[in-house]
């Protein structure tokens, strides 16, 4: 199973693709990882357009069975939520154009799937990503580590038959 994981952000969008192997313990190979960067000085349409184009290119190149995104929770950061929504919209349109279903997972679901408890520190999640992917070091920067964790989380829930598309 090939899964694209996305940590949505308008300035830094984590984008990772993994290939999950076998049926036993969760093991996977890293196929692609990057952080798509945009500048606050650029017009919004260019930032959103670049994110859309890069995500679509990766979806066409790797042909994942699913796109998994991190659900965002913003309590009092309305402007940030608004701008992250631009990035998420670009991702959703790219997935639509590529014909790939989209799934969303909250931070506690990611932590539960990868570490066994919903209150793990980011470092603990990154170490689990490293182990599952067989990497020498935890992935960096954190946006990439989060994107890979989200992809692996989808693989976990898909194996259990509990993944539900947006």
UniProtKB/TrEMBL annotation:
<keyword id="KW-0963">Cytoplasm</keyword>
<dbReference type="InterPro" id="IPR002176">
    <property type="entry name" value="X-over_junc_endoDNase_RuvC"/>
</dbReference>
<feature type="binding site">
    <location>
        <position position="70"/>
    </location>
    <ligand>
        <name>Mg(2+) 2</name>
    </ligand>
</feature>
<comment type="function">
    <text>The RuvA-RuvB-RuvC complex processes Holliday junction (HJ) DNA during genetic recombination and DNA repair. Endonuclease that resolves HJ intermediates. Cleaves cruciform DNA by making single-stranded nicks across the HJ at symmetrical positions within the homologous arms, yielding a 5'-phosphate and a 3'-hydroxyl group; requires a central core of homology in the junction. The consensus cleavage sequence is 5'-(A/T)TT(C/G)-3'. Cleavage occurs on the 3'-side of the TT dinucleotide at the point of strand exchange.</text>
</comment>
<keyword id="KW-0460">Magnesium</keyword>
<dbReference type="GO" id="GO:0000287">
    <property type="term" value="F:magnesium ion binding"/>
</dbReference>
<dbReference type="GO" id="GO:0006310">
    <property type="term" value="P:DNA recombination"/>
</dbReference>
<dbReference type="GO" id="GO:0008821">
    <property type="term" value="F:crossover junction DNA endonuclease activity"/>
</dbReference>
<comment type="similarity">
    <text>Belongs to the RuvC family.</text>
</comment>
<dbReference type="InterPro" id="IPR036397">
    <property type="entry name" value="RNaseH_sf"/>
</dbReference>
<dbReference type="GO" id="GO:0003677">
    <property type="term" value="F:DNA binding"/>
</dbReference>
<feature type="active site">
    <location>
        <position position="70"/>
    </location>
</feature>
<feature type="active site">
    <location>
        <position position="143"/>
    </location>
</feature>
<feature type="binding site">
    <location>
        <position position="143"/>
    </location>
    <ligand>
        <name>Mg(2+) 1</name>
    </ligand>
</feature>
<keyword id="KW-0255">Endonuclease</keyword>
<dbReference type="InterPro" id="IPR012337">
    <property type="entry name" value="RNaseH-like_sf"/>
</dbReference>
<keyword id="KW-0378">Hydrolase</keyword>
<keyword id="KW-0233">DNA recombination</keyword>
<keyword id="KW-0540">Nuclease</keyword>
<feature type="active site">
    <location>
        <position position="7"/>
    </location>
</feature>
<keyword id="KW-0234">DNA repair</keyword>
<dbReference type="Pfam" id="PF02075">
    <property type="entry name" value="RuvC"/>
</dbReference>
<comment type="subunit">
    <text>Homodimer which binds Holliday junction (HJ) DNA. The HJ becomes 2-fold symmetrical on binding to RuvC with unstacked arms; it has a different conformation from HJ DNA in complex with RuvA. In the full resolvosome a probable DNA-RuvA(4)-RuvB(12)-RuvC(2) complex forms which resolves the HJ.</text>
</comment>
<dbReference type="GO" id="GO:0048476">
    <property type="term" value="C:Holliday junction resolvase complex"/>
</dbReference>
<keyword id="KW-0238">DNA-binding</keyword>
<keyword id="KW-0227">DNA damage</keyword>
<feature type="binding site">
    <location>
        <position position="7"/>
    </location>
    <ligand>
        <name>Mg(2+) 1</name>
    </ligand>
</feature>
<dbReference type="GO" id="GO:0006281">
    <property type="term" value="P:DNA repair"/>
</dbReference>
<dbReference type="GO" id="GO:0005737">
    <property type="term" value="C:cytoplasm"/>
</dbReference>
<protein>
    <recommendedName>
        <fullName>Crossover junction endodeoxyribonuclease RuvC</fullName>
        <ecNumber>3.1.21.10</ecNumber>
    </recommendedName>
</protein>
<keyword id="KW-0479">Metal-binding</keyword>
């Amino acid at each position: 199973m090939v899964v694209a994981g996305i940590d949505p952000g308008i300035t830094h969008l984590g984008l990772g693709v993994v290939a999950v192997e076998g049926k036993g313990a969760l093991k996977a190979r890293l196929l692609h990882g990057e952080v798509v960067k945009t500048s606050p000085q650029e017009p919004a349409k260019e930032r959103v357009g670049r994110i859309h184009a890069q995500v679509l290119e990766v979806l066409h190149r790797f042909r994942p069975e699913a796109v998994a995104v991190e659900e965002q929770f913003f309590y009092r950061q309305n402007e940030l939520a608004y701008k992250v929504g631009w990035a998420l919209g670009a991702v959703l349109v790219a997935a639509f154009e590529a014909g790939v279903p989209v799934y969303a997972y909250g931070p506690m679901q990611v932590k539960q799937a990868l570490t066994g408890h919903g209150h793990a520190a980011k470092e603990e999640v990154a170490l689990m990503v490293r182990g599952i992917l067989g990497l020498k070091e935890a992935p960096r920067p954190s946006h990439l580590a989060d994107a890979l964790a989200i992809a692996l989380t989808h693989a976990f829930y898909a194996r259990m038959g509990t993944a539900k598309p947006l």
